[in-house]
């Protein structure tokens, strides 16, 4: 294999891609004392000059100063032969080229054909579900592991849900977990245009997602003790975490549901390609401790005024995204129609550095499973609150997660499924991903366990 790379970052010159490159440099192994499995790295994209500038930027922001183990590779997603060539050079592609509904499928297809592994930072449910429908079987056969949403969408939600669920010790069982996401910063909180474009195109094509779901066999649903939670008010005041909150239509809840469906179909999780007996035991014990529950995500703020702003931006994206002229307007003038939330040139480095997130998981359930089955409408009597917390979501937390997923593949491939299209939680749940994230600045904490008054 000429110029082979352990990992290739495709779309490395993009706004998110360059932060992924910077994170990768932290783990690039060039000394005999390092134990990192990442020894050679490829930066791929359609413009080699931009890729070289990205590398220069990343090196100037890093202690790593030896670019010899890094290759620049020209690859255009509209040129299948360049993708075939790319896949022949690596074991794993980290795809940062979005919107994924526009650019993702040729990359997935090339990886499946070549039998190489593929992770991305997609937050687009239709893309993820379509890739599963079209490529899962072939990916299983060819030994290609394809995992979307290996970024802030949706790993904190997946691992955060599981972390909360594991705190329910028998005979206690959860019924629902509501996540409250709070974004904090001394400066403005800003997202790059690529994320806005992906969201707007998702809204424009919402009918296609419905049609895709109707055309697919129904997935297994987990049995959850007690009745499903009611919808509740549009704006909620969640006193326990001190936030006002409104429903966030992100991919997180959908991704968590896909993991729970896969778990229902495979109660011991997914077998690794050549697992040790010890790992089989560990995997089974892990999934035994995860109890299914209803799951939703809300965007929260201490200020009610901010919630009204969130609603206004959501309504703008929803309304404008559903009309041709509206899409043109919001994508032409993103700052105006999102009240400064999204910018064509993205956030400044200072804005990225100053932002943080907290995601509170408020789990409610029963002190005993019997209580849930006693009467049809029995109310939860127990509440467990946990929290996941970390740096800025899109350009710091996302690269941290993507890189740790990649390092797990490089060091523990035998413990992971041979191939297939999966959400991240069902694959990485039983690995050491949570510990790795904790070592890299993303914390998981138990906040409280309380009895609820009736
Ligand atoms: N999961 C998460 O939490 C999370 C976080 C951040 C971003 N994202 C997602 O990541 C995606 C990228 O966002 P972004 O803000 O980084 O966008 P961006 O700055 O526009 O980057 C897009 C990248 O795609 C490349 N590209 C476009 N067309 C290509 C082609 N034909 N062949 C090869 N490369 C091509 C661009 O190359 P050039 O540099 O040559 O233009 C650029 O590198 C979006 O879908 C966004 O929603 C997700």
Automatic annotation (TrEMBL):
**GO cellular component, as recorded:** lipid droplet; mitochondrion; plasma membrane
Q: Which domain of life is it from?
A: Eukaryota
Similarity section: Belongs to the saccharopine dehydrogenase family.
Q: Which GO terms describe its biological process?
A: glycolipid biosynthetic process
Q: What is this protein called?
A: Saccharopine dehydrogenase NADP binding domain-containing protein
Domain named Saccharopine dehydrogenase NADP binding: residues: 7-145
Spell out the PANTHER family in the cross-references: SACCHAROPINE DEHYDROGENASE-LIKE OXIDOREDUCTASE (PTHR12286)
| Source organism of the structure | Papaver somniferum (Opium poppy)
- Which InterPro entries does the UniProt record give? NAD(P)-bd_dom_sf, Saccharopine_DH-like_oxidrdct, Sacchrp_dh_NADP-bd
């Amino acid at each position: 294999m000429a110029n082979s790379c352990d990992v290739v970052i495709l779309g490395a010159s993009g706004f998110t891609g360059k932060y992924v490159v910077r994170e990768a440099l932290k783990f690039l192994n060039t000394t005999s004392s390092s134990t990192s499995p990442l020894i050679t790295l490829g930066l791929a994209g359609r413009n080699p000059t931009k890729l070289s500038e990205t590398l220069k930027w990343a090196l100037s922001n890093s202690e790593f100063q030896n670019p010899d183990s890094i290759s620049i590779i020209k690859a255009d997603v509209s040129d299948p032969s360049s993708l075939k060539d790319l896949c022949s050079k690596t074991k794993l592609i980290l795809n940062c080229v979005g919107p994924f509904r526009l650019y993702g499928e040729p990359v997935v297809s090339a990886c499946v054909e070549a039998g190489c592994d593929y992770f991305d930072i997609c937050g687009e449910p239709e893309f993820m579900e379509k890739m599963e429908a079209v490529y899962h079987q072939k990916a299983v056969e060819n030994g290609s592991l394809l995992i979307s949403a290996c970024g802030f969408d949706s790993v904190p939600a997946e691992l955060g849900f599981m972390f909360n669920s594991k705190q329910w010790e028998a005979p206690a069982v959860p019924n629902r977990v509501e996540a409250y996401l709070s974004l904090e910063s001394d400066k403005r909180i800003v997202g790059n245009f690529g994320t806005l474009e992906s969201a707007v195109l998702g809204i424009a094509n919402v009918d296609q997602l419905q049609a895709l779901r109707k055309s697919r066999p129904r997935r297994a649903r987990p049995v959850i003790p007690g009745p499903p939670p009611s919808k509740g008010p549009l704006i909620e005041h969640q006193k326990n975490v001190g936030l006002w909150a409104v429903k966030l239509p992100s991919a997180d809840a959908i991704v968590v549901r896909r993991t729970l469906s896969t778990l229902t179909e495979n109660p011991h999780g997914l077998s690794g390609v050549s697992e040790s007996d010890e790992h089989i035991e560990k995997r089974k014990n892990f999934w035994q401790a995860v109890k299914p529950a209803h799951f939703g995500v809300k965007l929260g703020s201490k200020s009610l005024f901010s919630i009204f702003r969130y609603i206004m931006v959501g309504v703008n994206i929803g309304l404008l995204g559903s009309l041709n002229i509206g899409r043109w307007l919001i994508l032409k003038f993103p700052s105006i129609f999102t009240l400064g939330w999204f910018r064509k040139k993205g956030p400044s480095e200072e804005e990225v550095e100053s932002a943080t997130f907290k995601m509170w998981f408020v789990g409610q359930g029963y002190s005993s499973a019997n209580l849930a089955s006693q009467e049809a409408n029995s109310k939860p009597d127990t509440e467990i609150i946990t929290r996941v917390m970390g740096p800025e979501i899109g350009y710091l937390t996302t690269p941290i997660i993507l890189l740790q997923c990649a390092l797990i593949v490089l060091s523990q491939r035998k413990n992971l499924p041979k191939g297939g299209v999966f959400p991240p939680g069902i694959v990485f749940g039983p690995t050491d991903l949570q510990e790795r994230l904790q070592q890299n600045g993303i914390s998981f904490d138990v906040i409280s366990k309380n009895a609820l008054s009736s």
